[in-house]
Amino acid sequence: MLPFIKSVVKSECNNIHSVADIFAGTGAVSSAFTDKQIITNDILYSNYICHVAWFSPMKYDKKKIQALIIYYNSVNVIADNYVSENFADTFFSLEDCRKIGFIREDIEKKFISREINERERALLITSLLYGADKIANTCGHYDAYRKGAVFERHLQLFVPVPENNLNTNNICYNEDTNELVRSIKADLVYIDPPYNSRQYCDAYHLLENIARWEKPEVFGVARKPDRKKLKSKY
User: Fold this and answer.
1) 129, 50 in Cβ contact below 8 A?
2) Does domain 1-57+166-193 have CATH number 3.40.50.150?
3) 12 near 145, Cβ under 8 Å?
4) Chain-wide mean pLDDT for the chain?
């Protein structure tokens, strides 16, 4: 769809300097306009953190990211943590749950201690989310997992490589679009809202849980948190 979208914009729109993608999802459409100022928004924090990784103009240390991902791929985790205690042998194997939990906790500790900045944190979390989703024992979402599955694939992180020379005025939001549109301006607005009234966080709750890292109590077969008890509403 991206070539079609870009061709329509090129033929029908003049003097486009800024693009707002207000239901940005994974940021696919925004990625087609990196030569402009990009304004992204998504109510899912797991999507927002990926937007920060790909589109934020904040500087980051490439060698630091590479070194940490090499370390995370090589580490052998034997201690249990939040992820292994709540999700072992469901969406991921016990081994991968331990590793996911260890990596996510280490990223947060490094951010709190200022060993990594906000962009570096986002890049590492994005790498973890992509790696985890790639091996997840699901059929595309996290409403259920396949019982009795053999976990043949295991977690491997890759180094995200954002484009260079992004617009210094790019900004990423994690807000309710209905409220946000009252306070932003752009030459072009791309609108791709949800297809029904159901919130996407129900289908992608595990990725949202890992991204936010509030460690809520989870329930049921799908291991979903009670959204009414969360610190941040999603």
Assistant:
1) yes
2) yes
3) no
4) 93
